[in-house]
Design goal:
The protein is mainly alpha-helical. It contains 5 helices and 2 strands; from the N terminus they run αβαααβα. The chain has helices at 2-21, 30-54, 56-61, 66-82, 91-114, and strands spanning 25-27, 86-88.
């Protein structure tokens, strides 16, 4: 449970960092980032596997790069559910944010959660 909470806070920090980097990616505050991180993890548990199954042929053809598009879609879905507190201006911004989140997950969050 503690590792999950640490991951949730780290994901919120990553979202805040992305909001600092991109003008088209806005989060109202740290509390909103925590809520967005929680909601994003729920969307990734429920919606992402369905999207991965439906887009499996495209994912194979693009050698897995389409998974970034799926991550962008789940991120935009989270932003849509959060309303004005979490805004992503365009799909390209969502794809860039999905790539940065994936990098942060791979090199920062997962190694810290394993310790």
């Amino acid at each position: 449970m503690l590792r999950w909470l640490i991951g949730l806070v780290l994901n919120a920090l990553v979202l805040m960092g992305i909001a600092y980097l991109f003008s088209g990616f806005e989060i109202a505050g740290f509390g909103t980032a925590i809520l967005a991180s929680l909601l994003l993890s729920i969307v990734n548990m429920i919606v992402r596997p369905i999207l991965v199954i439906f887009t499996f042929p495209i994912t194979i053809l693009t050698l897995g790069l389409f998974l970034f598009v799926i991550s962008a879609v789940t991120l935009m879905l989270t932003a849509w559910m959060m309303g004005d507190a979490f805004v992503i201006d365009g799909f390209f911004t969502a794809v860039l944010a999905a790539i940065l989140i994936a990098l942060a997950q791979t090199f920062v969050i997962k190694p810290l959660k394993k310790k």
